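call fold(seq) -> tokens
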Amino acid sequence: MVNGKYIHEMKLGDSAQIEKLISEELVNEFARVIGDFNPVHLDQVYAEKTHFKGRIAHGALSIGLLSNVLGNVLPGHGTIYLSHEIKFLSPVRIGDTLTVRVEVVELIPEKNRVRFRTTCINQKGEMVVDGFAWAMPPKAKE
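ret:
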């Protein structure tokens, strides 16, 4: 496998991460793709009147970035994302740079399942997303 690992190649503590700038263009494009046009994400005047005091990124955008790491880096191509328990701890704002990280915390080789700790941390070092995901890495050819 060129990109990523099979379950027998992983061990507890293995991790991978990416960094991503949350730009206005990214938030706007994400809204178009998923069809979520909530003004808290898109309208600065509206968002300034909310308890967030400004625009915030969609929570699903953070989840999508975690999916990016799972599907492209660890385990990598061929991975099936099974479930995710997630907490949004603080808003992700336009201009934030997120460090999006997954870490192996449980391996069940007989079921080809891996549990990951999933986090997003902003440029200030604040954890903004925390959770646990289950994934099925690609099966090695026997």
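Helices lie at 24-34, 39-42, 44-48, 59-72.
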